[in-house]
Amino acid sequence: MKSKQDVFLELYEPIHDRFERFCRARVYGTMEHSDLMNDTLLIAFEKMETLQSKEAFLSFLFGICVRVLSNHNQKTREERFSNDDNSSVVDQSQNTDLDTDIHYLYKSLSQLSDDQRESIILFEISGFSIKEIATIQNASEDAVKQRLKRGREKLTRIMTFESVRKTGGENE
After folding, report:
1. Does residue 88 sit within a domain?
2. Among 128, 136, 160, 171, fewest CB within 10 Å belongs to which?
3. Residues 121-172 pLDDT 10s
């Protein structure tokens, strides 16, 4: 009989890359993606008995991940109100044009609503189908399509504005 750890690793290994992409895209500016992954995996391992089917493992991880990030953001907001001397940390390692583009994409994604951002990340970055996203988000397929449509439109506006601002085009 397989140990709990063996079963967990057997389920996790095939989806590692998709899960990591989801975490990287989801955490922009709030915490390290590796911390989010580690916290999520620890909770998932501890709550493994609540998993209803092996096919739902990735959705199980995403649900935990979203809650962990939400809790972290809530704590951060509370700390921000209690500390007035907050200073933001800028990542100085982004040297290439691609890194800069990715930085602006993640920054732009962070300006979308949670549902829109999550839908776009799941569909465009993680490669999930609309039906899978509807299951993960506990929403109808039409709702997911609307989130994608509205999220893309808003993302286009944000990124177009950001591009104009970067090149010194129109004034704000």
Report:
1. no
2. 171
3. 888 877 888 998 898 888 999 999 999 999 999 988 888 876 566 555 544 4
List the domain range (segments joined by +) for residue 26.
1-83
CA distance 120 to 45: 27
pLDDT digits (tens, 9 = 90+) for 40-81: 999 999 999 988 888 889 888 988 988 898 888 777 766 655
Structural contact between residues 63 and 109, judged by C-beta atoms closer than 8 angstroms: no
What is the number of residues in the chain? 172
Q: Could you tell me if 44 and 3 lie in one domain?
A: yes
